[in-house]
Design brief:
The complex is a heterodimer of chains A (573) and B (106). Chain A has 573 residues and is of the alpha/beta class. Chain A has 16 helices and 25 strands. Chain B has a four-stranded mixed β-sheet, covered by helices on one side. Classes of the chains: A alpha/beta (573), B alpha+beta (106).
């Protein structure tokens, strides 16, 4: 940590998320003011601070309550799973209810709050407390006369707390135009946290903001938080920076052809995948494929469904041959189905965080994302998604989101807000040709991989999703039956061509045979002629030999002395 | 409520024993002043039927919690019931008497 050197010592609150925002907790040994309107969670936060301190950080605490009795408090926080009675019995916590009833008190002159100091001091010393909560000390102003004395005494009290070295939380009601009704912020100036509980579009949400933190860096945003059966959790725990480690590992999409389009191996692990498209283009089917493939590999998959119930999803996916039931039974696949309007965005986000933290999935599916957009809360939805995506990336969880594009608007329109967060964006679109509607899929972007630029026809068959090449010809892109017709036509043409080729081949063969026959005939004739000619030559030679012999013989008979000359021979011939 | 004193019952109330407890924290000027004021008021209005007990919280810090004491000095009327709390140095005699139900509330 680069800022570790000059940091103040801190007392961790143990409240999920708050320690991250405050870089480690509240200022140790100093008072912190937690203020907000009624019912915003001040008491719960203060109590959690004490209980965590006592249980996890070995820092016993004193809770001085000015509004709720010990019994009420114990009961109220029991619903958050805190066993105060046990902690009190083990001397980890002292609970002191300060009873003030204005009508029973008569003021007769100057007074001070030494009684409170002694009381608090005694409580602190009795268990060696390191933490103190005063909830809500402003009640003193309603219970005791003479605000001037009270203000002076409170100033003294906070100074005294600081001297005692206890980390304290002072709660205060939100006032008009100031953080607290009595302006406590001017006394407690080390750390001020404002809680807020507001509702918009009939959905309420709680927010927390660290207004001031002397001597420390802190997150300055308004952070949503949630109070549920496990106490307070503040969001986000992440989004502190782009520090995620990018995995080079791939996750198959469950559809081999799609993997092929994505550089041959599928999505990156820990990346965010967005499937957008108009209704009925098969977004959920892709999601189901992805889920089924993950479960087959033995990975945990968490499926947040915001439009369909789990059983409906399973039935529907059964119809395209994806049986998710066994995975659910094996505990590999978990559905979390809620209506988007069921809670505020932060509540949803927080529930998602919680579910992810407990189930520890490798894959998270959110189907669909944009059902959160009600009215003009797009920026908030974007902020929420950003946090979700960040969170998933940090945990190396592959996020798979579907997004419904309303027909009529540009396909990429509603998603522009989050497109920069998305690593792989698949677009499903319906293609209308020849009086029918077909599905087309293409990869709009996919960071870090050589992805296909081709549009594929997307078929939902009884055995899952199939991707087919679309027909791209002179008449444009053809899909569906137009593609089939085109393919049939092409096949017919091809058959014809094949037959023609066959015919030509036969013709050629025939010609070759004819030629060969002719060649044979000519050769035979030639051979006959050759034999004949050779015979004639032989005979001629034989005759000549004979003639010469005869002539010689004749000469012998005539006793001729002269040899027959050439001329004679020629004549004789 | 039982024993709720009203104007015409004043005499009856005065015949009761007043059990008063003054909480202080050490011998501070305010505490000393309060005790002196109390003594005077009691002598004047409750002569004979009152007892004053002074509790120093520095010696008995536990009692601050047990008796719900915040302000110092605090005078508690333990008897007669109901319990009354009077805070301050008791320099405003009229308010002390009102607080002790010795004068009617306005």
């Amino acid at each position: 940590m680069p800022n570790a050197r000059a940091q103040l010592p801190k007392a961790p609150t143990g409240i999920q998320g708050l320690d991250e925002i405050t870089n480690g907790g509240l200022p140790k040994g100093r008072p912190t003011l937690v203020c907000g309107s009624a019912g915003c969670g001040k008491t719960v936060m203060a109590m959690e601070f004490l209980v965590h301190g006592a249980q996890e950080f070995n820092e016993p605490g004193v809770f001085m309550a000015f509004e709720e009795t010990e019994k009420d408090l114990t009961q109220n926080v029991a619903s958050l799973g805190f066993d105060l009675q046990d902690l009190i019995a083990r001397k980890k916590i002292v609970l002191d209810f300060v009873y003030i009833e204005r009508s029973e008190i008569e003021e007769t002159g100057e007074y001070d709050l030494e009684g409170l100091f002694i009381r608090l001091g005694h409580a602190i010393d009795s268990i060696g407390a390191k933490r103190v909560v005063l909830d809500t000390i402003e009640s003193l102003f309603a219970g005791l006369p003479n605000p001037l004395i009270l203000r002076a005494e409170l100033r003294r009290l906070f100074r005294w707390l600081k001297e005692k070295g206890v980390t304290s939380i002072i709660t205060g009601e939100r006032g008009e135009g100031s953080l607290t009704r009595q302006g406590l912020e001017e006394f407690v100036s080390d750390c001020v946290i404002v809680l807020d509980h507001r509702s918009s579009e009939q959905v309420s949400s709680r927010r927390l903001r660290v207004v001031k933190y002397r001597g420390s860096t802190h997150g300055t945003n308004e952070y949503p938080f949630l109070i549920d059966e496990n106490g307070i959790s503040v969001l986000p725990v992440t989004s502190l920076g782009l520090q995620q480690i990018a995995s080079t590992q791939r996750v198959p999409s469950g559809i081999p052809r799609l993997d092929a389009m994505l550089g041959g191996e599928g999505y990156y692990r820990g990346s965010s995948v967005l499937i957008s498209g108009t209704s009925g283009t098969g977004k959920s089917s892709l999601a189901a494929h992805f889920a089924a493939a993950a479960c087959q590999r033995g990975e945990n998959t968490l499926y947040f469904a915001f439009e369909e119930s789990p059983s409906q999803i399973m039935r529907n996916m059964g119809s395209i041959g994806i049986d998710l039931q066994p995975y659910v039974e094996k505990g590999l696949l978990q559905f979390q189905a809620n209506r988007p309007t069921f809670a505020g965005l932060e509540m949803h986000l927080s529930m998602m965080h919680k579910a992810i933290n407990t189930f520890k999935p490798q894959i998270v599916i959110v189907d669909p994302l944009n059902s959160f957009i009600v009215g003009d809360n797009e920026t908030e939805v974007k902020a929420m998604l950003m946090r979700l995506v960040d969170f998933l990336k940090m945990k190396q969880i592959t996020g798979f989101f579907t997004s419904l594009t309303s027909s009529g608007t540009a396909l990429e329109h509603t998603d522009i807000a989050i497109s920069s967060l998305i690593d792989t964006w698949l677009l499903l679109r319906s293609i209308e040709i020849g009086g029918e509607r077909n599905r087309g899929l293409y990869v709009l972007k996919s960071r870090g991989m050589a992805h296909s630029n081709q549009i594929r026809e997307f078929l939902l068959t009884s055995h899952g999703v199939e991707l087919r090449d679309v027909y791209v010809g002179p008449s444009g892109v053809l899909t569906g039956s137009a593609r089939q017709a085109q393919e049939a036509q092409e096949q017919a043409t091809q058959t014809l061509q094949k037959q023609e080729v066959e015919r030509r081949k036969l013709e050629l063969e025939r010609k070759r045979k004819a030629m060969e026959a002719q060649i044979t005939a000519i050769r035979t004739e030639f051979e006959a002629q050759e034999t004949e000619t050779l015979n004639v030559i032989k005979q001629e030679q034989a005759r000549e030999v004979q003639l010469t012999q005869e002539r010689t013989n004749m000469a012998l008979i005539r006793k001729a002395d002269a040899k027959p000359n050439r001329l004679e021979a020629q004549i004789a011939k | 409520m039982r024993n709720e004193p009203t104007e015409h019952k004043l005499a009856e109330t005065q015949s009761d024993i007043f059990l008063l407890r003054l909480y202080v924290a050490g011998q501070t000027p305010k505490s000393v002043l309060a005790f002196a004021n109390l003594k005077n008021i009691c002598e004047e209005h409750l002569a004979g039927h009152y007892t004053i007990e002074v509790v120093d919280l520095l010696e008995n810090p536990k009692l601050a919690r047990g008796d719900q004491i915040l302000a110092i000095p605090t005078l508690v009327r333990r008897l007669p019931e109901p319990m009354r709390k009077i805070i301050g140095d008791l320099s405003n005699t009229e308010r002390v008497l009102i607080g002790l139900d010795l004068l009617p509330r306005e």
